[in-house]
Amino acid sequence: MAIGSLLVIAAYFYHCEAFAVVQGDVLNERPIVGILSQELSLRVHSMFPKENYTSYISASFVKDVEKSGARVVPILIGRDRSYYRNILRKINGVIFPGGVSKFNNTNGYADAAKHIYELAQELNDAGDYFPIFGTCLGFQFLVVLTSGRGPEAIRIKCRSYENLPLNFTQDFRKSRMFHEAPKDIIRILKNKDVTVNSHGFCIVDESLKYHNLTKYWRPTSYSNDEYGVRFIASIEHKRYPFYGVQFHPEKASFDWKSSKHYTHSFVAVRTNRYFVDFFVNECRKSQHFFANAAEENAYLIYNYAPKFTGAMGSSYFQCYMFEPRGNV
């Protein structure tokens, strides 16, 4: 074989590494993204004392996915593994959203995320391309699930409730997430305060190194918290199409609580679109589908009506609520 051909093949595997390869060049033009629900906080639960809902999804995540050209299926918590296995075979990717959920809650967000993470690994190992995207808490869950340890071993306390730029790694262009990102988007992310941060915990390089996680995860950018702590702002798995960001791309467009000071500039809205656009394009590489239109329609988020929680003081302006406890 010619040396030039060998170099091309080597470069291909360096960039794509070992995760599942998309079969053919046909993309799915009707992608459906699953969004994992999570337990209600006491504050949100108090807004609906009679209904006594078990879980919710912020409508900002739903709208963000729809704006990128995909539809949404809610994934409920508190189910057995067969439920998650069945639903992953029908959809094209999953978002672990940000929010407030304890890692040690049984039959909640943590257990559901673990099922999905392990099942997604199985799919990709079998050559069935299946991506996951984690935002804030969801990003932290991805890394913790890889470690097999509790969050206290991986996360550190920090404080970041502001809009920040990204400090990219030297090789960030070799990442899947940023390999084809437009130059103007990268320039804005580097120089403008456009990523919305709202978190009291961080993951830092030292934790990845101490727990031998650098063989799985590649940080691609960093930000600094209010006390100067350098935390990982974006990351991707080296083997699987799993991605995470510590910030909230959805908030620039869809969450409007004035006391939070989320950026809503045209530049911020346009720049934050990149992340969900990228992920939905990843989902287009999955060829999963529902058996028929009737089954598909029964699963879609359109069967639920969002509630205006912003008027009740929530930082999420609209939320989808699921399953009154008496009906579970």
TrEMBL record:
<dbReference type="Pfam" id="PF07722">
    <property type="entry name" value="Peptidase_C26"/>
</dbReference>
<keyword id="KW-0732">Signal</keyword>
<feature type="signal peptide">
    <location>
        <begin position="1"/>
        <end position="18"/>
    </location>
</feature>
<dbReference type="InterPro" id="IPR011697">
    <property type="entry name" value="Peptidase_C26"/>
</dbReference>
<keyword id="KW-0378">Hydrolase</keyword>
<dbReference type="InterPro" id="IPR029062">
    <property type="entry name" value="Class_I_gatase-like"/>
</dbReference>
<feature type="active site" description="Nucleophile">
    <location>
        <position position="136"/>
    </location>
</feature>
<feature type="active site">
    <location>
        <position position="248"/>
    </location>
</feature>
<dbReference type="InterPro" id="IPR015527">
    <property type="entry name" value="Pept_C26_g-glut_hydrolase"/>
</dbReference>
<keyword id="KW-0964">Secreted</keyword>
<dbReference type="GO" id="GO:0016787">
    <property type="term" value="F:hydrolase activity"/>
</dbReference>
<protein>
    <recommendedName>
        <fullName>folate gamma-glutamyl hydrolase</fullName>
        <ecNumber>3.4.19.9</ecNumber>
    </recommendedName>
</protein>
<comment type="similarity">
    <text>Belongs to the peptidase C26 family.</text>
</comment>
